[in-house]
């Protein structure tokens, strides 16, 4: 049951300052551990989105022409401010999302690493030059900003995912319009204020809060050149198809059903630690969470025993409590969804080994809590295997061989991440070459790349050609241009209708 405790009234951030909503529609932001309503957030209309985009378009030209050193200086200042406010950002994430403080602090750190990368924008935007492609002719390439770009980000990483996008887009010379999740928007508004304090010109960074109406307005707006999205697969498909239909460049990262294959020769303590950490961290609300353990041969029984030992030792509670290792889900609606999947798994015949549905946290009866849940003897065709649950539900599938494990893993329509636990180098090499996933871990359950590589999946986990942040991020937020140059030379005057060559 939700309670209300003098909720804060939030705003948008447009043109370098707060901007009130038009007053027509509002959503509630809750404290996940208690269910209390802590804020009211305006849901932007098409007119509010247009105001933000127009402000961005006005600011984009001067910012895109600003010297690279000036842009880099703003990035360095922003980096320092985020570092100084990291505890405040983590506390906001824990309150509105539910993840424990240590996890929230890790999210802020991973976002900072992308800012570190973006601070090197003078190097990242260097082009190439080839002198003498023909007599007196030189050719060189350069990359230029797109102008106005937008980011649509999910509830599960309210700091990290916006910082995967905005720092690189802004460093590259674009103006950025962020539409964060309406479930936990406060961190994005703080980041916008920090951008302003860092010296970013008004209009280069805007935040419009909203729901599908705001998303569709951004996708259709003629001044938005590109859209980055992270969220569920159905919405990712909608964003990609709608955005590209309006002539935009789109990268839309979707859902996942990440498999971890455990071979009989694996270090089972390492594997069990990895499965529990990756399956139940952030209450399973990660697109890189391991949700399927593929147990090969006779490894299932000893592996499950070790996993259960670790589940029994976990402490679930308010994310602000130092002892808590796993917090609540983001909302009552999401709690009901995850519980319904557990109900379906039982009805479909899976063996429920650990049931988290009846978990109670004393003093937090209104919180969105569900305990770690473990299923065994799960098969394709069951909803708990086929669909992304996005909660602390780990399922075990038993197979007889490595080949069967690979066939199972590659048959999944998702391809975000995949991992293998083994001490066999040949098996590990075969796995990393053969698995159809964009990010692969060898004895690493959550193979999220560092900022200087790019994050992205395959199949229904990504719609678009380029991954997010890293080198792909620079390519996504810029477009290439090749210049072929010759200065006037009297010896080469005259009409020539032939196709130009280097001879």
Main beta sheet: 7 strands, mixed
**What value does the Rg take, in angstroms?**
25 Å
**Helix fraction bin:** 25-40%
Strand content: 15-25%
Count of helical segments?
A: 16
Which architecture of the largest domain does the CATH hierarchy give at level 2? Answer: 3-Layer(aba) Sandwich
Provide mean pLDDT, rounded: 96
Main structural class:
alpha/beta
Strand order of the largest sheet: 15-16-17-14-13-19-20
- The coarse silhouette is globular
Structural key phrases:
16 helices, 6-stranded mixed sheet, 503 residues, 7-stranded mixed sheet, Aldehyde Dehydrogenase, Chain A, domain 2, 2 domains, single chain, alpha/beta
Kindly describe this structure.
The protein folds into two domains: 4-254 and 461-482, 3-Layer(aba) Sandwich (Aldehyde Dehydrogenase, Chain A, domain 1), CATH 3.40.605.10; 258-442, 3-Layer(aba) Sandwich (Aldehyde Dehydrogenase, Chain A, domain 2). It has helices at 46-65, 68-84, 86-96, 101-118, 121-124, 160-171, 186-197, 212-220, 233-245, 268-280, 300-312, 332-347, 383-386, 402-411, 425-434, 470-476, and strands at 4-9, 12-14, 17-19, 26-30, 37-42, 129-134, 137-145, 148-152, 175-179, 205-207, 224-230, 249-253, 258-262, 290-296, 351-354, 373-376, 393-399, 414-415, 417-421, 439-442, 458-459, 462-463, 478-486. It is built from 16 helices and 23 strands. The termini are far apart. A seven-stranded mixed beta sheet has the order 15-16-17-14-13-19-20, with helices on both faces. Helix content is 38%, strand content 23%. It has 503 residues and is α/β, with parallel strands linked by helices. The mean pLDDT is 96. The longest helix is centred in the first third of the chain and has 20 residues, at 46-65.
């Amino acid at each position: 049951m939700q309670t209300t405790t003098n909720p804060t009234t939030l705003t948008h951030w447009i043109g370098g300052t707060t901007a009130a909503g038009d007053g027509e529609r509002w959503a509630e932001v809750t404290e996940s551990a208690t269910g209390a309503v802590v804020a009211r957030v305006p849901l932007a209309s098409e007119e509010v989105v247009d105001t933000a985009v127009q402000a961005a378009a006005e600011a984009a030209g001067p910012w895109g022409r600003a010297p690279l050193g000036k842009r880099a200086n703003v990035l360095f200042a922003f980096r320092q401010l985020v570092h100084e406010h990291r505890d405040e950002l983590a506390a906001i994430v824990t309150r509105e999302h539910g993840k424990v403080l240590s996890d929230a602090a890790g999210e802020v750190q991973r976002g900072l690493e992308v800012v570190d990368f973006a601070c090197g924008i003078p190097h990242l935007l260097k082009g190439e030059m080839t002198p003498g492609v023909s007599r007196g002719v030189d050719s060189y390439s350069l990359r230029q900003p797109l102008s106005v770009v937008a980011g649509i980000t999910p509830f599960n990483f309210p700091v990290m995912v916006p910082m995967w996008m905005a720092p690189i887009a802004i460093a590259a010379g674009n103006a950025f319009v962020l539409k964060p999740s309406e479930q936990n928007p406060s961190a994005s508004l703080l980041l916008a204020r920090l951008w302003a304090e860092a010296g970013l010109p008004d209009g280069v960074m805007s935040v419009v809060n909203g729901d599908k109406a705001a998303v569709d307005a951004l996708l259709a707006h003629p001044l938005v050149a590109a859209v980055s999205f992270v969220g569920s697969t159905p919405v990712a498909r909608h964003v990609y198809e709608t955005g590209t239909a309006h002539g935009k460049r789109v990268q839309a990262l979707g859902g996942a059903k990440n498999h971890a294959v455990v071979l009989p020769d694996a270090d089972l303590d390492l594997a069990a630690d990895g499965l529990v950490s990756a399956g139940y961290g952030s209450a399973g609300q990660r697109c890189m969470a391991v949700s399927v353990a593929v147990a090969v041969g006779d490894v299932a029984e000893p592996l499950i025993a070790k996993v259960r030992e670790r589940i029994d030792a976990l402490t679930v509670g308010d994310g602000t409590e130092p002892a808590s290792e796993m917090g609540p889900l983001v909302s009552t609606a999401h709690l009901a969804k995850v519980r319904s999947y557990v109900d379906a798994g039982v009805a479909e015949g899976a063996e429920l080994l650990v049931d988290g549905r009846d978990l109670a946290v004393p003093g937090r009866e209104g919180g969105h809590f569900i305990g770690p849940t473990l299923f065994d003897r799960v098969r394709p065709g069951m909803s708990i295997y086929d669909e992304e649950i996005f909660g602390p539900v780990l399922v075990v599938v038993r197979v007889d061989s490595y080949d069967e494990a690979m066939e199972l893993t590659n048959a999944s329509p998702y391809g975000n991440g995949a991992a293998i636990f083994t001490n066999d180098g040949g098996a590990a090499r075969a796995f990393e070459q053969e698995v159809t996933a964009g990010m692969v871990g060898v004895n690493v359950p959550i193979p999220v790349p560092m900022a200087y590589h790019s994050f992205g999946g395959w199949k229904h986990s990504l719609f678009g050609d380029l991954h997010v942040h890293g080198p792909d991020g620079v390519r996504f937020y810029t477009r290439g241009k090749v210049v072929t140059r010759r200065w006037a030379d009297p010896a080469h005057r005259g009409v020539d209708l032939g196709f130009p060559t280097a001879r």
